[in-house]
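Notes from the 1:1 (GR / supervisor)

We went over the backlog. Supervisor wanted to see one worked example end to end before approving the batch request, so GR pasted a single chain during the call. The sequence is below; no edits were made to it. Supervisor asked that the structure be written out right there so they could see what the output format looks like.
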Amino acid sequence: MTRRVRVDVDPPYEVRIGRGVLREIAEVVPPSARRIAVLHQPSVVPVAEEVARAVADPGRDVIKLELPDAEAAKTIATAAAIWDALAAHGFTRTDLVVGVGGGAATDLAGFVAGTWLRGVDVVHVPTTLAAMVDAAIGGKAGVNIDAGKNLVGVFHQPAGVLCDLDVLATLPAADYAAGLAEVVKTGFIADPVILDLLEADPAGARDPRGPHTEELVTRSVAVKAAVVAADPRERLQVGERIGREILNYGHTLGHAIERREQYRWRHGDAVAVGLVFAAALARHAGLLDDATADRHRRILAALGLPTGYPKEAWPELRATMSLDKKTRGATLRFVVLEGLANARILADPDPAVLEAAYGEVAL
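Structure output shown during the call:
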């Protein structure tokens, strides 16, 4: 049975979750679309071909455009090549872009759709766990530049998202585990039941065919949908108030690690270290109790995710974090917890507190 999570933005859309939901993609294609571009990564050609067949219709032009793999797809050069292809095929404002693949593919597809003719429809078919519970939902799309990750982008909500759990079966184990970092994040910021499921059966949680997959994905999607609906364009955060920025829990240090590693690290692996750091930061700032802080490391380690990073990297990471998307002017902002499912902003923490927190992840 397909589970559906509504994202109440303008216009609203649904995230469909279940096994075999790819067969439902024709239901979310706007009837006006006479041209459809299926953007996909090299590793998901069979899924892209299935999508192309499912949306085929007499009189409709369906093209498949292969993207570079992983973060290499998220460049202005790649976007420009796709724009040229759309122009060559005469794509108009009533046509459609479909993003098939991991978070990098859906990010790029959303960015292309949001900028082509100032906005055409996009449907996402995420094929990784991280993309299903995070990147494909919420309408934030962007590309990387030399100065950092996701610094150039748009807000462009999809017309629909299809999370077909069957495609996760072929995902490498390490990639699937990395996606669990985003699931852990949603548990700490909003839905502790997620944490209970992970702790009760970490081995089952690591298995895409396991008994908890549908429940974990649906709960994580519901968390993001609620946050996005309340703050679609990330405008609510003022001072310690927090809106959509809550979804960046663990990401400030995580993004800095990714940049230092030149994006060779999996996003979820970097976020896992970032979550442990964020918990330590809240602890050292006197905001978070020891038990909740320690729970971060215990859950992530049980899922096979990294919880530490080299000690000597700190000066470079600290400098990179100053350019993070959450920085306001000269003020560095961190999403932290004051308790389970109780997040706030910690602005400009004392350098000594930052260093002490990093000491808890330093290897």
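Supervisor's comment: The mean pLDDT is 93.
Batch request approved.
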